[in-house]
Amino acid sequence: MTVLQCPYCGAYINEQARVCPKCRESLAVGGAHSAARRGEKGEIRRGVMSIALAAGLRYLSSGQTTIPIPFEIPTLVGEILVPLLFLAGVGLIGVGAYLRLRS
Ligand SMILES: [Zn+2]
């Protein structure tokens, strides 16, 4: 019997185990490597989501929308939060792309 280490919580588990008995994470084919691939896809997805959110906030705070907003959006949102969110998204996509190229 071979013992493996869970890529999520670090517990030692039986090689045949499909699910970690400690943290209940699925240990599908590929083990730690597929977990790393999922991680880098998550980075890119989060980056795209935050750019989309930045675009949505930019649109709402620009005042050009026909959707009536029942509250005033502070100018701070459009001037600081939206560019920060956009840059964070670009950074996350960059990290995801770098991790993908490296593996
Ligand atoms: Zn675990």
Description:
With 103 residues, the protein is mostly helical. The chain folds into two domains: 1-30, no CATH class; 33-102. The protein is 56% helix and 6% strand. The chain contains two helices and two strands, in the order ββαα. The chain has helices at 32-61, 75-102; strands at 3-5, 12-14. A two-stranded antiparallel sheet has the order 1-2. Strand 1 (3-5) and strand 2 (12-14) form a beta hairpin. Helix 1 packs antiparallel against helix 2. The longest helix has 30 residues, at 32-61. It is elongated, with a radius of gyration of 21 Å. Bound molecules: zinc ion (ZN). Zinc ion (ZN) binds at residues 6, 8-9, 11, 20, 22-23, 25.
Summarize the structure.
This protein has 103 residues and is mainly α. It has helices at 32-61, 75-102; strands spanning 3-5, 12-14.
